[in-house]
Amino acid sequence: MKQTYLYLFALLLLAGCSSNQEPITKNISMETIETDKQAVNVRKVSTDAYIPNPQVIDDASLVSAGDFYRDRKGEATLKAIDRQAKSLTIDSIKLTVKDAKLIDYRPAYSLIDFYHTYTHEEQFTFIKFFVEIENLSDKEKNFSPVAFIQTNADEMITWENDIYLEELNGVLNAGERKKGNIGFIVENAAIDKIQLSTSDVYNQQEKQLAGAKTLDFIFE
């Protein structure tokens, strides 16, 4: 009789252990699913084309027309994009523009004073480029990736109106590489083509080594 009780007790104990293990298996499965979801979300973000900026909203998740994003710097909607990377070489300077975006932006109240330098509108559209420049020589050069842009609405905007202020213009030391964002507020947002013009390339003695070149962008 005692053996029968012991046998029943052993069966109940095994059953209890099995039921206790099931939730652990389910939890692991849910964690795996959540990890997979996060991985998918990460792949949708153009992280290579964004460097955080103190005064402009994060546009990394804006990859298709209509995408919307909100953070403490305001609200942004992607109007159009040219995803095709474009490169050129001037003298020993290689310039690559990873993408170009046309973004509707309503900055947060805390940034209004900063943007009043450029516009008095509370909501506006700006063109944004993510660029990389590299000095392939062993000598210091002077260069600006964007001297001015021209839109197909006959609006020209010069480098002085860049809203990102990431110090990509000027001296490039021997072998130096820089990357970052450049952006300009446009008055007429009804555009689908723009042309970017670089600066000339100069040496330390301010002698011109090569003339400016252009890149064309077509927004989808």
Could you walk me through the main structural features you see in this protein, from its secondary elements to its overall organization?
- By secondary structure, this protein is an alpha+beta fold.
- It has 2 domains: 44 residues; 170 residues, Sandwich (Immunoglobulin-like), CATH 2.60.40.4170.
- The chain has 2 helices and 14 strands; from the N terminus they run αββββαββββββββββ.
- Strands 1, 2, 3, 4, 5 and 10 form a 6-stranded antiparallel beta sheet that branches. The protein has a 4-stranded antiparallel beta sheet with strand order 8-7-11-14, with no helix packed on it.
- The radius of gyration is 27 Å and the shape is globular.
- The N and C termini lie far apart (83 Å).
- The N terminus is likely disordered.
CATH class of the largest domain: Mainly Beta
Structural class: alpha+beta
**Helix count from the secondary structure assignment:** 2
- CATH architecture annotation of the largest domain: Sandwich
Q: Return residue spans where pLDDT drops below 50 for at least 5 consecutive residues.
A: 1-47
Number of strands: 14
Rounded to the nearest angstrom, the radius of gyration is 27 Å
Q: N-to-C SSE series? A: HEEEEHEEEEEEEEEE
Q: And the CATH topology of the largest domain?
A: Immunoglobulin-like
Mean of all residue-level pLDDT scores:
84
Proportion in β-strands: 35-45%
What does the largest sheet look like? 6 strands, antiparallel
Roughly what percent helix? 10-25%
Distance between the termini: 83 Å
User: How many distinct folded domains?
Assistant: 2
Approximate shape? globular
